[in-house]
Automatic annotation (TrEMBL):
Catalytic activity, EC: 2.7.1.55
Keywords from the UniProt entry: Kinase, Transferase
Any one Pfam family match given in the protein's UniProt record, by short name: ROK
Residue ranges that the Swiss-Prot or TrEMBL entry lists as coiled coil: none
Organism, scientific name: Rouxiella aceris
CDD domains associated with the record: ASKHA_NBD_ROK_AlsK
Gene: alsK
Record bears the keyword Kinase: yes
Signal peptide: none
GO MF, any single term: D-allose kinase activity
Protein name listed in UniProt: Allose kinase
Class of this enzyme: transferase
Amino acid sequence: MQYFLGVDIGGTNTRLMLMDSQQKFYGYQKVTTPSWAGLNDPLSGLQQLIANYLAASSKGSQVVRVMLGLPGILSRDRQRVLSLPFIPALDDRPVAQMLSAALGLPVVMDKDVNHLMWWDLTRLAHLPDVAVGIYLGTGLGNSLWLNQDFYHGAHGAAGELGHIPLAGNPALCPCGKTGCVETLTSGNWLTGWKRQHAAETAFADLFVLHGEHADLVEFVDRLGRTIASEVNILDPQYLLLGGGVLMMRGFPLTRLEQQIRQHLRGPQPANGLQIVQSGVTDETGCRGACLAAQRDYQRTQPQGSGMEMPVRRKA
């Protein structure tokens, strides 16, 4: 039996999970990201984290591919980190290649949001030709699926919807630019709004107790306009919506969908677009990374080798 390791790296937590060739999952583990990223040599810390996880598992010796999910900009060949704001020590380093050498295992990587998207795509009855994924959490995650594959762009930086400029927005973005839509349309913005306007309200209850506030109504409408802009450009069959913010209690998903559709060009893509809510959970990034590792491994096998990848479908 062959196994695949998915490593989902976030600013707060790093999650690890194994999957076998029949897509059964094992050994979910979550550690704080600063526990290794805060070391003098974060890359060595990550290598040790993965090595310890594999050593502790009875299946570790059978792992044939490791997949990292990173919330940053990667090179087009997915070998080098170009920009990872919360771990700048990894910037401009061939992280996949260096980890492969240290672990003695093939290591590949992609944007974490593509792993969320891949999980959701494999829940559909059939893989579409074109789909867009929007995952709103701390930031505005965006994944693009074009012509039956993820689209990375000419330099690896495609899908940065959160960094389109918004007129009249003076806010400085962590990316270093001013006016990015993500500064007003993200979990980070909601956290700041809560601190200023609803300090006594639990974050999870913001939309339950304050959803009618003009600022939060505009937050939802602004998100809808932003998403509609991308849908009008790409004309996808599916729009997948997920992320922690959209899963908050009381979040007005119906209003968001209305706002998106209100701004779509007719008759298409307005009439043809299917909007699907993501099934994202705490483990989804790891699970999607495992599936992506298997997909990458299968692509390297000679045709007719019997390694065709099973794809789970929605029951």
